[in-house]
């Protein structure tokens, strides 16, 4: 490992101050960032660990919503999201048990990997991303592959997800990486259905507007039977062509609707 | 250099470390506890699994300063006080749950973490829990059998070795 400075502050204010130094990088659970550093795909001169900030950990129910601290691990979301079972199930299927004991929801949302699971849940839930500086609606937050509305040095302190009537996440697992080859999160609210797709697009996580409209008037897998998904700008790699992913988007959406609880 | 303190297998230690030291490197190179193996160094294989405050963690993907104040458990601390193998280790021996043995420390540590939360796992639950532990001898079958046996369950219905 190359040489860098690392700090482990215990408050958000101290973390923000530490991130003010040039080229400093926030470190969540490290399950993506540490392998990235080992490969020298990133080489910040300073890391600011967020795992020592107790204010950023844990889950709480707030009215009809679930608030999750940015440094909450996937394992803690599994255990703490009983009010939002589809989200708990999503967390239970990320990576493997040891990864879930370290990786955090804030880290996943900040990284916005185009195949990560949490971005689909946040977008389909119309979540609010809470940072040290402001609140950002999920619709404004995700801005493309590995790109978000976060400014330099801005920290995700938490995320608030309105709890839907029913929801489900279907993940077609890429077996080597355990990321989603395609994942679809369907969430039904009183005012309509939201559908978010991960793993499929070169633009990263995105909503499927036609499916949302169809499912909002008829919440059944039949409602999307006549829809087609364009392969334009979908990811093509050795694991699957754009056409294959387009097919999977529709199949996974149908399965999510059938399995929604 | 930063000074960190932790307990490792019940023993309190305090050491000066460089900030970029991984927990796996600290255990192997500073404490000379080489039972924790580094297989892939990319958090895929699970040979480096240790317990941090009782939870399974890939020690190659955690900086040691993040374990400051934690209780660490490694394979060296698993045997009974008299030096005999503990129930999980003994089951691995009895059911030939290892071939070359390289992945075994991680397998034992993952299995122990599983059994803490789920004392009577099904075969399927064991296989799912071991998703992040790779055995390149592909000896999974007897590893699953060993863990079933360690949890006191009948393994006679699992196919012969």
Keywords for this entry:
heterodimer; A: 261 residues; alpha+beta; Uridine Diphospho-n-acetylenolpyruvylglucosamine Reductase, domain 2; Uridine Diphospho-n-acetylenolpyruvylglucosamine Reductase, domain 3; Enolase-like, domain 1; 3 domains; five-stranded antiparallel β-sheet; four-stranded antiparallel β-sheet; 10 helices; 12 strands; 29% helix; B: 161 residues; Ubiquitin-like (UB roll); DNA polymerase, domain 1; 2 domains; five-stranded mixed β-sheet; 5 helices; 5 strands; 30% helix
Count of strand segments of chain B: 5
User: Would you give the CATH topology of the largest domain in chain B?
Assistant: Ubiquitin-like (UB roll)
> Into how many domains do the coordinates of chain B divide?
2
Radius of gyration of chain B: 16 Å
Largest sheet of chain A: 5 strands, antiparallel
Q: What value does the average pLDDT of chain B take?
A: 95
Number of helices of chain B: 5
Could you give the order of strands across the largest sheet of chain A?
4-5-8-6-7
Question: Can you tell me the residue ranges of chain B where pLDDT is under 50 for at least 5 consecutive residues?
Answer: none
Pick out the low-confidence regions of chain A.
none
Round the Cα radius of gyration of chain A to an integer and report it.
18 Å
Task: Tell me the domain tally of chain A.
Answer: 3
Question: What is the CATH C level class of the largest domain in chain B, in words?
Answer: Alpha Beta
Number of strands of chain A: 12
Overall morphology of chain A: globular
* CATH arch. level architecture of the largest domain in chain B: Roll
Give the termini distance of chain B in whole angstroms. Answer: 51 Å
Largest interface: A-B, 26 and 28 residues
Task: Bin the strand percentage of chain B.
Answer: 15-25%
Query: Portion of residues in helices of chain A?
Result: 25-40%
Shape of chain B: elongated
Task: Provide structural commentary.
The complex is a heterodimer of chains A (261) and B (161). Chain A contains 10 helices and 12 strands. Chain A has 261 residues and is α+β, with helices and mostly antiparallel strands. In chain A, α3 runs antiparallel to α4. The longest helix of chain A is centred in the last third of the chain and has 18 residues. Chain A starts with a strand and ends with a helix. With 161 residues, chain B is of the alpha+beta class. In chain B, α2 crosses α5. The radius of gyration of chain B is 16 Å and the shape is elongated. The model of chain B has no long low-confidence stretch (mean pLDDT 95). The interface between A and B is medium-sized, with 26 and 28 residues.
């Amino acid at each position: 490992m190359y040489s860098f400075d690392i700090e482990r502050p215990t408050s958000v204010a101290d973390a923000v101050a530490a991130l003010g130094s040039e080229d400093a990088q926030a470190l969540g659970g490290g399950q993506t960032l540490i392998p990235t550093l080992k490969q020298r795909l990133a080489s910040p001169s300073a890391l600011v660990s967020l795992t020592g900030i107790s204010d950023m950990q844990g889950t709480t129910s707030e009215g009809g919503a679930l608030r999750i601290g940015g440094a909450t691990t996937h394992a803690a979301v599994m255990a703490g999201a009983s009010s939002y079972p589809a989200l708990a199930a999503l967390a239970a299927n990320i990576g493997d048990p040891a990864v879930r004991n370290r990786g955090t929801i804030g880290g996943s949302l900040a990284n916005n990997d185009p195949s990560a699971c949490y971005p689909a849940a946040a977008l389909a839930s119309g979540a609010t991303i809470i940072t040290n500086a402001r609140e950002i609606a999920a619709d404004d937050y995700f801005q493309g592959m590995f790109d978000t509305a976060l400014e330099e040095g801005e920290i995700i302190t938490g995320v608030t997800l309105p709890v839907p009537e029913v929801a489900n996440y279907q993940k077609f697992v890429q077996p080597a990486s355990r990321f989603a080859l395609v994942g679809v999160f369907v969430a039904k609210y009183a005012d309509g259905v939201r559908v978010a797709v991960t793993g499929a697009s070169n633009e990263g996580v995105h909503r499927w507007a036609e499916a949302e409209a169809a499912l909002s008037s008829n919440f059944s897998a039949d409602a999307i039977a006549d829809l087609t998904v364009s392969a334009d700008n979908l990811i093509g790699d050795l694991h699957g062509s754009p056409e294959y992913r387009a097919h999977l988007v529709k199949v996974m959406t149908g399965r999510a609707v059938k399995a929604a609880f | 250099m930063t000074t960190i303190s932790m307990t490792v297998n019940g023993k309190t230690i305090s050491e000066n470390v460089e900030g970029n030291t991984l927990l796996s490197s600290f255990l192997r190179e500073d404490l000379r506890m080489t039972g924790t193996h580094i297989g892939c160094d990319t958090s895929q294989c699970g040979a480096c699994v240790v317990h941090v405050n009782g939870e399974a963690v890939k020690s190659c993907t955690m900086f040691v300063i993040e374990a400051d104040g934690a209780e660490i458990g490694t394979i060296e601390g698993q045997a009974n006080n008299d030096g005999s193998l503990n129930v999980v280790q003994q089951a691995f021996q009895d059911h030939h749950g290892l071939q070359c043995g390289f992945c075994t420390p991680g397998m034992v540590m993952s299995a122990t973490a599983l059994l803490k939360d789920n004392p009577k796992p099904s075969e399927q639950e064991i296989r799912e829990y071991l998703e992040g532990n790779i055995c390149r001898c592909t000896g999974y079958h007897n590893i699953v059998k060993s863990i079933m046996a360690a949890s006191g369950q009948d393994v006679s219905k699992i196919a012969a070795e």
